[in-house]
Amino acid sequence: MSLIPAKVTVFNDALLKIDAHNYETSVDRAALTPNITSTDFDGIGGNTITTDVIKWTLETTGLQDWDTENSFSLFCERHVGEAVSVDLYAREGGKGRRFTIKIVPGVYGGTSNEQLKNAITFKVLGQPVEIDEVGDIVEDEV
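Above: the chain sequence. Below: its structure as tokens.
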């Protein structure tokens, strides 16, 4: 067994591309999150069958911007229900993930004398794939 050295990645040079638009300056959080549900079937013969279902979400928070054309806020509002491609990189020049999300709108408005912010969770359709720094899918090396 070999020792694999770890590298620290700080999420401050990230890239978030949604349907050909870069939104990393509009969001302060973009987390691709697996949600795992396990179901057990206990047969009368003493057997157990476990089924795991993995569903992904993209959780974002960021600024509401209703004035800039193609802003993240306006894009989400204008494309509700559409399935669009997303590339998310934890750091520029590194490997990332590509996946498809279903667009939902964010919040409009907020609290007096505070920056208007959004928290939007998108359903991921299917499973994410690993991509390299230029956006090509990384093949498994098994």
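The mean pLDDT is 93.
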